[in-house]
Each structure stands twice: as structure tokens, then as C-alpha cells.
Design a protein that fits this description.
This protein is an alpha/beta fold. Helix content is 37%, strand content 28%. The protein has one domain: STAS domain (Transcription Regulator spoIIAA), CATH 3.30.750.24. Strand 2 and strand 3 form a beta hairpin.
Length: 135
């Protein structure tokens, strides 16, 4: 997965954090969290800050490419919505049934478009389509 993203022609910027690797594209942000972390709004604060700066008020979609196993604090989606108003949608790319079930629970805590996909390219296509509808 990561090798594909490293060479994708639309990639604008790639950053490595303590908890993840983030791939910044024009209209969406793809994030691959590290194995075994506990993702909270606080642990992702640097990533959130950089996304706010990079997208600078422009609408964008967050794509979680779940290539590793980790835990999420779903109630922190409320904080994300509050602090990042230009985040207009969220996609999860999941490679297991358990992760898909978890993502569907997370969806209950996010009040904007939220979709679960089997493949990264599907999520990227959805993100582009969602952005076009919003503009």
C-alpha cells in the first residue's frame, strides 16, 4: 500500500509522525496509522494541526487506510468535527470484517459523510466525487 502512495502522481506531501504516516493530496488526506497505537484526538494533534494548515479552509476528505491494527476512541470524532470544519467526509479502507464492523460503529460518532471501502482506489474516487459535489 505505502509503496503505491509513495509513487502516486497526485501526492503533494508525505509526513511521518510518531503514530502514523500521512499522504497529503489536493482534495484528500490518506493516513496509515502505526500498528498497535491507541488513536485519540490528543495523540493525533500534530497531524490535525498540519492538516488544518495544509488545507487552509478548503474542503477535504480524510481517508483512513487501515493496513495495521490499532484502536480508535470514537467519541473523539466529535472533537474532530469541532476543530476541523472543512473536513467534509471520512472514508475507511478496511481489509478485514472485524475492522469493517468497528468502522461502522465509528460512523455513529461522525455527523458528516462516512463510508467504508474494500480498496484504497475506491475511497480515493469517492473522495474526489464528494469534493466535487461540495464545490
Amino acid at each position: 500500500m505505502t509503496q503505491y502512495l509513495d509513487t502516486h502522481k497526485g501526492l503533494k506531501k508525505q509526513l511521518k509522525y510518531d503514530i502514523c504516516t500521512a499522504y497529503f493530496f489536493e482534495n484528500f488526506l490518506i493516513v496509515e496509522m502505526d500498528e498497535g497505537i491507541n488513536l485519540t484526538f490528543e495523540s493525533a494533534s500534530k497531524l490535525v494541526h498540519d492538516a488544518i494548515l495544509y488545507y487552509h479552509g478548503r474542503p477535504f476528505i480524510y481517508i483512513s487506510n487501515r493496513v495495521h491494527s490499532y484502536s480508535v476512541t470514537p467519541t473523539d470524532y466529535f472533537k474532530l468535527e469541532e476543530h476541523v470544519p472543512n473536513l467534509i467526509g471520512f472514508a475507511v479502507v478496511s481489509y478485514s470484517r472485524l475492522n469493517k464492523a468497528n468502522a461502522n460503529i465509528e460512523n455513529l460518532f461522525f455527523n458528516r459523510p462516512f463510508e467504508v471501502f474494500n480498496e484504497l482506489q475506491e475511497a480515493m474516487n469517492w473522495a474526489e466525487s464528494t469534493i466535487k459535489k461540495a464545490l
